[in-house]
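Supplementary notes for students who missed Thursday's class. We covered one full example, reproduced here. Read the sequence, then the structure, then the short commentary at the end.
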Amino acid sequence: MILDIAPTELLVLGVVALLVIPPKDLPKAMRIAGQWVGRARGMARQFRSGFDDMIRESEFHEMEAKWKAENERIMREFPPTAEQAALMAPVPQDSPAELSEDALAGTLEPPIPAPAPERKRRATTPGKPAPKRPAAKKLAAKKPTTKRPKPAS
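Structure (token representation):
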């Protein structure tokens, strides 16, 4: 811990604070002291997490180097056979520039559009027109009207 303060030292500081700081200012002083302690703990926590991250990263690099060395040792002791080497070789892929237009035309199919959903129609009786939808009304901006009372004469 960064601030190594024993409980007895805290008790002595509390007694001195009660004697020096007036009772009405004591809550304010305690709040300020609490803020300082909180900031110190936050900085200590941030330092500790950064240090832990550096240790974790260095351990990762060490482990990676060990795995690489072990893999090389195994490959030297047990070299791959011709069949295994053929299986491990990368598979050559045709680039689009090498493919002919006929081959490309046969592989690409146009997408099939989905049928549009049917719309439901309102049932109307014969001879009557379909009911109209209510028109959207524009709301006029109302000016606030403040009427002043007439002065009594």
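Commentary. The radius of gyration is 41 Å. The CA atoms of residues 58 and 145 lie 75 Å apart. If anything here is unclear, bring it to office hours.
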